[in-house]
Amino acid sequence: MTDPSPTSAESPLTREMVEQIDASMLPSLERHHLRLLAHCLASFQQMASPECKGPIPALAQQQRWCRDQPLLKNDPEFCDLLLRQFSTAADRLESIADALGITPLELTLGALIDQAVMAFNARQQIT
Question: Most CB atoms closer than 10 Å: which of 23, 52, 98, 112?
Fold first, then answer.
């Protein structure tokens, strides 16, 4: 049985989620990007909890969430970097959600994996 607990106290991704990403058989860099995107999605879902659908949380909500994270409280530079990463991820998640006809918070890890595999396969056909 797979341990569903987070991979560390700081991560919103569970060990099972990381194993699902690794099982995608995507190249290492693609899996890394997918883990980052999944981490951002899980963070957005935590921010919006208990809501399970809707838009990406607003910047003010993201900033508040960052300030409430014990490991980020005393590191404003990293928090700023994380917020920039969130902004980039939000654009990508919104694009994927639009293509699926759902809201970003309704996205699942399975949908992200499927999209990453399809995008990788499409790039491979071009080259």
Answer: 112
Span 11-17, mean pLDDT? 91
User: What residues form DSSP beta bridges with 6?
Assistant: 14
> What gap in Å lies between CA 50 and CA 96, rounded to an integer?
22
User: What confidence tier does 7 reach under pLDDT thresholds 50, 70, 90?
Assistant: very low
Q: How far apart are CA 64 and CA 42, in angstroms?
A: 16
User: CA nearest 111: which of 2, 16, 17?
Assistant: 17
Strand locations in the chain (E): none
CA 48 – CA 55 distance, rounded (Å): 9
Interatomic CA distance for residues 127 and 93, integer angstroms: 26
State the pLDDT confidence band at 6, using cuts at 50, 70 and 90. very low
pTM above 0.85, yes or no: yes
